Every structure is written in structure tokens, then in C-alpha cells.
Amino acid sequence: MRDPTENDPIAHPLIVPLGDRALLVRFAATLSVAANAAATSFAKKLAQSPPDGVTEIVPSLVSVQINYDPAKISPDRLAAELSLIAWSKLNADGYSGQTWRLPSRFGGEYGPDLEAVAHASDLDVDAFIDAHNATELRVLATGFAPGFVYCGFHGPPLQIPRRSTVRNQVPPGSILFAVGQTAVAATEIPTGWHVIGQTDFRNFDPASSPPTRFRAGDRLIFERTT
Fold it and tell me: Which segments constitute the Carboxyltransferase domain (predicted)?
């Protein structure tokens, strides 16, 4: 399995149309620290001074979707303006953000997959939890479901595939683990990730503006509680 903590070089990003009201700026075809940092940095720079006609900026793991109003800006003009940012220096500065500490319960009813995950990592349960919590993780992106965040990266040996079967539902606050990443669910969802624990923190409140609290580039520290 490829180690996503490796810093792959970033070539010129690719700008492609998504229908008639969006462009996608893609920094890599595979996930890595460098690609995610570039996408995060690009989204932050663009948000500071978006071109006229941009209606929404949606960062993902290695790309950023830019929605726009074609009555206010043409796709060619927008692509040209985006390229000026995309080809500028983008680096780990995009990872600057708030630090969050998440009290978390691991194993048992809260993390039914913990023992299997620890065994697959050649660690006992306590050693796995210590190794997992020793790493200050970055919020890579929000997606899949409201408030759901992808966090990374874990180096070896904390890299195992997703489950071979999907759980129909896991509760809000579930701490999920796979492919060198930890994810946190904010709503009840199905998942193919391993469920290793749970936190009371909820990253989604539809009554708030914005409805989520974590941002790409924020740091998460998981703290074991009983």
C-alpha cells in the first residue's frame, strides 16, 4: 500500500469544466500530503479574493470545485484567473488552522472493529490507541455526508484497507479508520471504514452558520477517555 505521507511533487494543476457552471482545479490523481496541502492552500487563497461571478468554492482531497454564474463570467476568463493562483506558490501554509482536542472512547460498544484493526497493524489494542493518538492529524476535507471529515495522515504500520463489508449505519461521532486516515462521522451513516471509537463532538449543526466547525487545514488531537 502506498504511503500517503510521502510528499509527491506537484506538477501544473489541471483545470477542467464540470458542466456549464463549474470548473475543477485538480492538483494530483492520487492523495498525498503535498497534493492535499496544495488544494487546501489554493482554496484559501481563492476565498480571500474570489473572481466576480464565483458562487461557491468546494475543496476536496486533491482538487477544488469552483461554481460560477455564467452570466457574470465566462469559463475561459475564470480559468485564466484561476490559473494565476493555481500556478503560484502553494505549500503547507494551507494547513494552518485551529487545533481541536477531541475526548474519545475507544473499543467495546464504541469501537467494535478496534481489536481487529490493532491485530492487522501488528499491535495490541493499547499500543494501537497510543500510536493513533500520538499523531496530530490534519483535516484534509469535508465530504460524503454533512460534517463528515477526512483526517490524515498515519504512517506505517497504521495503514490497512477498508472493511470488506459495509455497516448499514454507524452513529454520529463515530471514529473511523482505514487507508492511513481517520474519519469522524457527524451524522448517522453507512460506512465501509473500521469503527474504532466515538466522540461526543458533533461537527454538524444545520441551525448554525456555517453548519460545520472543522475546516480543511485544522488540526485534530484525539484524547482517550474512559
Answer: 13-214
Distance CA 27, CA 83 (A): 12
42 neighbors 94 (Cβ within 8 angstroms): yes
| Beta strand residue intervals within 7-145, DSSP E | 14-17, 22-26, 54-59, 63-68, 99-106, 137-142
* Best CA proximity match to 7, nearest among 132, 97, 92, 131: 92
- pTM check: above 0.90: no
Selection from 9, 112, 22, 127 nearest residue 75 by Cα: 22
Question: Which strand ranges, in their side-by-side order, compose the sheet holding 54-59?
Answer: 14-17, 22-26, 63-68, 54-59
Has residue 194 got a pLDDT over 50?
yes
What count of other Cβ atoms lies within 10 Å of the Cβ of residue 89?
Answer: 7
Looking at residue 131, its pLDDT comes to 97
Domains and CATH numbers, the chain: 14-94 (3.30.1360.40), 99-224 (2.40.100.10)
